[in-house]
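Why do we bother with a discrete structure alphabet at all? Because it lets us treat a fold like text: something you can write down, compare, and reason about line by line. To make this less abstract, here is a complete entry for TetR/AcrR family transcriptional regulator. Read it the way you would read a sentence in a foreign language you are learning: slowly, and without expecting to understand everything at once.
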Amino acid sequence: MAAAERLYAEHGLVAVSNRQISEAAGQGNVAAVGYHFGTRADLVRAIMRKHSAAIEEIRLRMVEETHGSEEVRDWVGCLVRPATEHLATLGVPSWYARFAVQVMTDPVLRAIVTDEALTREPLRETLYGLGGCLDALPAEVRAERGDMARQLITHTCAERERALAAGTSTRQPSWDDTGGALTDAITGLLLAPVTRRSPAKEART
């Protein structure tokens, strides 16, 4: 799993074969991946589950602390900070954030991972709490901004992880500061005014 996570993060899902993963893991049997995990999707799911378990444990603690809040920023923190807090524990170099980007750009694997994530109670409670603070937003705007927020979290974390691995400068001095910057940005995104479409634009759409 560690070898697959690193190779997928560095080279992409399509470019890495099961043989390469087995060799990188020091396995003499080139079919070891299939033997232990089955399909590539099963291997990806196992890697995501390993990290998700740790992230959701952090999120559970934050949700319990945030319970009853009506502040958007509090719930956005529950959405963002579990990931950045987990990434801070992985050391340098790490590969999970870059691996997650690869998964989220694959349409099939993205659907598998997203559907499974939505079954986890701490995340469901976070989205419910956040939704309760955004009743004034039309449903389609909330959905669109949710997509934007997911992209912002995933790619910002991957860029920081990449910079740390390369030893180059980062936008924020720590993962905690990155979590704070993301929380600020996404709170602003969710609370931004909504521009009404003109009738002519709606007709063309």
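What the structure line is telling us, in plain words: The radius of gyration is 19 Å. The CA atoms of residues 199 and 205 lie 10 Å apart.
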